[in-house]
Design brief:
By secondary structure, the protein is α/β, with parallel strands linked by helices. The chain has 16 helices and 15 strands.
């Protein structure tokens, strides 16, 4: 019996495909530790820790994040110790180091193989911070705080047996001394589920139904914020909508806590930037979809005529690869995370701040959709060849984590080997001639 412990404040998060693949196996026992936002999965025993209350003002401003991470670490220690007392001592621990949750794991489970999920290493320059001149520099104090955000991650990575990053670029954000310790394997995209569908339709909350027959420009991010180019997209809409009077704009996502800067008080980033284009666009053709379920989100991708995905140099969203798997025509920002995936044959890249070029490329793709059908196919082929969950990523993950091969596969492999041995014996007894 192989015992696996997952630790992530928002479990299952990136570990969902692996947990689903392992669920139901009688040779695997899984447990997870997460915060109150963690979600239970079949086959995984979940322990939720409470985020401790307490004022951080007494700590030095530079140390407040680490203080909060240490408080989380203490709660994880209690949860993990409880698992240990119940007899669950993991052979493998897979954890995200970004919130301090990994700090107690090595001393508590000294014999376990511990893997750190290396999603992003913060830098005070050259990545998401300082990329957009529209927003003021944080000064030296701000740069020090950014640097110190990595403290728990570095301690965890030093403790870990290995690290795992989903893309080459995300691994490249880490200090060179650690990069050789980090393997690159993407979480994977279920291309069997997420594929083109010419018959797809999406019913909006207003009752309006959109299909592939409509000109639909899609934009999808967890939070509408500058880090994901929301301001650039909105600023491109007046020209796009004027040139394409039938275009429907579908903006997916909402006002969740942003990854980057918080909006000015009294605003979400959506309300703050939308003021710029009020009166310049037909608002009845702009549709905000905040709470699409998984099936509806897939339909939104399948009906898309042009899918805009922008990002600062930051973590690559799952939604980009899912859009490509659905056969979307991608118009993306010419930033490092996208250059790893989009090469010009499978999508279009434009400079992040070039609003005119963004508008022009969207207009062009809407005006001549057949010209770009090959690019749509190439986008899906890229995902199938490099990021397919069941055929590429999951087998690599199982091998990397050293998770035992399922018993039925072992039996099948042994049967094949026995038959091969018998064939060789018969072949040899026939004097080297095929019987």
């Amino acid at each position: 019996m192989q015992k696996i412990l997952f630790v992530h404040n928002n479990f299952p998060a990136q570990f969902l495909p692996l947990c689903k693949a392992l669920s139901g196996r009688d040779d695997i026992q899984m447990a997870a530790i997460g915060s109150p936002t963690a979600r239970a999965l079949p086959g995984v025993s979940l322990k939720k820790y409470m985020i401790p209350d307490g004022e951080l003002a007494a700590a030095h401003p530079f140390a407040r994040r680490f203080e909060a991470e240490c408080r989380r670490a203490e709660q994880v220690l209690y949860s993990a110790s409880n698992l240990k007392q119940q007899g669950f001592v993991p052979d493998l621990v897979v954890a995200h180091p970004g919130w301090g949750e990994m700090l107690p794991l090595r001393p508590l489970f000294p014999e376990a193989r511990i893997i750190a999920y290396c999603e992003f290493y913060y830098r005070a320059a050259g990545q998401d911070v300082g990329f957009d001149a529209e927003f003021p520099d944080m000064g030296v104090d701000g740069h020090v705080r950014i640097h110190l955000k990595n403290a728990a991650t570095l301690l965890a990575l030093d403790d870990a047996d290995a690290g795992l990053s989903p893309t080459l670029w995300q691994r490249s954000t880490y200090p060179g001394v650690f990069q050789s310790k980090i393997e690159v394997i993407h979480d994977g995209v279920d291309t069997d589920l997420i594929q083109p569908d010419e018959t797809a339709a999406l019913t909006l909350p207003s009752g309006k139904v959109l299909t592939r027959a409509d000109e639909v420009v899609t934009f999808a991010t967890r939070s509408h914020e500058p880090l994901r180019g929301f301001h650039c997209f909105l600023r491109a809409l007046p020209a796009i909508m004027a040139a394409r009077p039938n275009a429907q704009i579908l903006i997916i996502g909402g006002t969740a806590i942003p990854y980057g800067l918080s909006p000015p008080e009294g605003h979400s980033w959506r309300t703050y930037f939308f003021r710029e284009i009020e009166g310049q666009v037909d608002a009845s053709r702009i549709h905000f979809a905040e709470e699409l379920d998984r099936a509806q989100f897939l339909h939104a991708l399948q009906i898309s005529s042009a899918h805009v995905y922008f990002t600062y140099p930051f973590v690559l969203s799952w939604s980009l690869l899912e859009a490509m798997s659905a056969g979307c025509l991608i118009i993306g920002s010419d930033t490092a995370p996208l250059r790893e995936v989009i090469d010009g044959s499978n999508g279009i890249l434009v400079p992040f701040f070039d609003i005119e070029q963004l508008s022009a490329r969207v207009i062009e793709t809407l005006a001549s959709p057949r010209r770009f059908s090959g690019m749509r196919r190439a986008a899906r082929e890229t995902v199938m060849e490099r990021y397919d969950l069941n055929r590429i990523c999951l087998p690599r993950l199982l091998d990397f984590y050293k998770i035992a091969t399922p018993s039925n596969i072992v039996r099948a492999k042994r049967t094949t080997e026995v038959l091969a041995d018998r064939f060789r014996d018969v072949f040899a007894s026939a004097g080297g001639k095929r019987p």
